[in-house]
Amino acid sequence: MAPPTFTGSTDDKGPVLGWLWAIEAYQVLGQALPVNIRCVFEGMEESGSVGLPKLVRELGTPGKYLDPDVCDFVCISDNYFLGKVKPCLTYGLRGNCYFHLTVECSTKDLHSGVMGGVVHEAMTDLVRLLSSLVSSAGQILIPGIMDEVAPVTEAERAMYRDIDFSAEQFKVDAGVDTVSDRLIYSTKEEVLMHRWRYPTCSIHGVEGAFDGEGSKTVIPRKVTGKFSLRIVPDMQPETVERLVREHLDSVWATMGSPNRMTLRADKSSLAWYRDPECANFRAARQAVEQVHGISPDLTREGGSIPITRVFEEACLADCVLLPMGACDDGAHSQNEKLDRTNYINGIKVFAAYLTALASL
User: Do 160 and 192 touch, CB atoms closer than 8 A?
Assistant: First the structure.
């Protein structure tokens, strides 16, 4: 059974209620909805959305529940402004390939004072393997991993120039302003591109090792390192997994360790990208301009929402990500919040978006 999932004010109770308030506003005013709407609600995203892709594909089966030919647009409100004030529309997400790398050296934990120096230790092997994946400057060290990455066009590069983004404020928000005087990259365009449109490799943790307070001299018999690669267009999860396996096998062969190394691909999802000039985005942009009085920034995001592609495939329609919350809402944190102004304006944007769709 999956662990319980607790949703917060900005991720995603506020946006969900915002859509319901927008629909109710039409009803209270005695106005017919300008378009037909089908809503899908689920509260298990942080537990993997078990069963949701299957449900969505069943709902999209022609002649069963929903004829894809009459579903013209998809909208998801599960992301945030790039900054604290200026609204945005999101046209790209990275995918994710998550791995568990395990090294076993014994059938039981060992005492370093008794066995240290005479056995090949699992943790030592694991650290060497993990360090071969990525440099301290974020460069992925896996041969061939960049070969499928879609090249940056000049038109795409130009989209970053006018985006409202402060690298200095980003350092404060990330909590690194007092640790370092700079990020890995110095310009706004470089920072945003490496957050959104280039792949990354991150090491997340080690299972099986001592991680409590104090000192303990155990040699763990088995340790599992957890890492992931955020992937971008046109990378394929199958290719990424193959390259990761080939790289780790190659490194392992040079180590000469008698220990047992295994790699398990835990889950994977494709990146998502849509033309921000398509009709769905034009309607969303019109709604934002009507409510906020400014044109939204067009952004991508470094995270992953795998169900986005499933909705598009099931409905044969383009999706727009239309956020309500701000970058400092603290999604998933203990003090998650949603500004009242963003909540009210978000409801207005949702209602205006429905009207704009009807006029296309």
Answer: yes
202-210 contacts: CB < 8 A, separation 24 or more?
Answer: 202/134, 202/227, 202/228, 202/229, 202/230, 203/130, 203/133, 203/134, 203/227, 204/228, 206/123, 206/126, 209/123
The partner residues of 202 in beta bridges, in order of sequence, read 228
Asked, colleague to colleague, whether 13-92+271-358 and 95-149+198-269 share their fold, the answer is no
Is the CA virtual torsion 324, 328, 330, 334 positive or negative? negative
- Name the one residue in this structure whose structure tokens are 């370092």: 180
Number of H helices, E strands in the chain: 11, 11
Give the ranges where the chain is alpha helix by DSSP (H).
13-28, 52-59, 112-115, 122-131, 154-159, 167-174, 188-196, 237-255, 279-292, 307-315, 340-358
Q: Which of 65, 63, 38 is nearest to 54 (CA)?
A: 65
- From the list 90, 77, 89, the residue with the least C-alpha distance to 17 is 77
pLDDT confidence of residue 5: 47
Which token pair is 297? 């920034």
Kindly list the domain boundaries of the chain, sorted by start residue.
13-92+271-358, 95-149+198-269
Reading phi first (left if > 0) and then psi (alpha if -120 to 50, else beta), residue 256 is in left
Residue 112 backbone dihedrals phi, psi, to 5 degrees: -65, -25
CA dist 140 and 348 (Å) reads 43
Q: Is the pLDDT of residue 299 over 70?
A: yes
Determine phi and psi for 256, rounding to 5 degrees: 65, 25
pLDDT at 207: 96
Q: Which of 42-46, 79-83, 222-226, 346-350 has the lowest mean pLDDT?
A: 42-46
150: amino acid identity, one letter: A
The answer to whether 227 and 101 are in contact (CB under 8 A) is yes
**Average confidence (pLDDT) over 328-345:** 90
What CATH number does domain 95-149+198-269 carry, 3.40.50.1370, 3.30.70.360, 3.10.20.90, 3.40.50.1010?
A: 3.30.70.360
Mean pLDDT computed over every residue of the chain: 91
CATH 1.20.120.450 fits 13-92+271-358, yes or no: no
